[in-house]
Amino acid sequence: MRNFLLARLLQAGVVAVVVGALCFVLMRVLPGDAAMRIAAGRYGPDARIAEAAEKVRLELGLDRPVAVQLLEWLGSLLRFDLGHSLVTGGSVAHELQVQLGATLWLAAAALALSLLIGPIVGIFSGLNPGGAVDRMGLAGAVVFRAVPPFVLGLILMLVFSKQLGWLPPAGFGSPREILLPALTLALGLAAMSSRVTRNSVAAVARAPYFAFARYKGLPEAVVVRRHGLRNAAIPVVSYLGLQAIYLVEGVVVVESLFAYPGIGHALVHAIVERDIPMVQGTALVMGLMFVVIGAVVDLLTLWLDPRLGRNA
After folding, report:
1. What is the DSSP letter of 84?
2. Count of CB atoms within 10 A of residue 198's CB?
3. pLDDT above 60 (res 223)
4. pTM as predicted
5. How far is the C-alpha of 27 from the C-alpha of 38, rounded, in Å?
């Protein structure tokens, strides 16, 4: 366990440095004047924006060499100081703390909904391969995985907000407002997890120990619960790490679509306004989320199959 934690801490450090440096360089090579964008975000576009941009450039030291600014940011990162927003002047850490809380609620709701849909459909499909549930599950998985999140979100918004009037199209603060963006993410997650669960359950159902449990006369529900679910869950839990990629990518699109105040929405605004510390801080949090989710998935996999730890 100590080696595992040390490896994850090292991985987090590498992710922090690489993501921060890449964001810094990419923001610098974008076309346009960063000082002009920051000044427009602070004061709004007007006839004297050029003077405001020059003032911002001198105030923030944007006229210094890029290497000096990058080394300064890395030094602040070693002190766990993410700096301040170039537009609002607020602490990046404080703003990310608020936005990350909203994003975690959205991600948790999306994962919960996907686990209520995907694995359940996959279990019934795997126990009866080629049946009606299996065929409908395959068709649904193909459709929901092929449709981009922003298209799916627009369809759900038109149906449940515009036509039926059941749910608000945007906002934050109540379960009704989080349901549509969470469902948009959950359907894409459930599309793949259902097929992974289906294949895993089908493989377990063909195993000799599963057939032996049936020959003993155990009820089907007991056979599935005692001898099927835990063995079938190992590849499903492992796939959750890959689903994190879809989840983090989808958060940026879905939060912007539904005007949801999370880190994805903040990242889009920070890029438009050339707010480099906010871009670096937001991307850093997203990168570290991959590390944390990967560590949790590895621990769950070891709990489900302790033999993996002995073989490591």
Report:
1. B
2. 28
3. yes
4. 0.69
5. 12
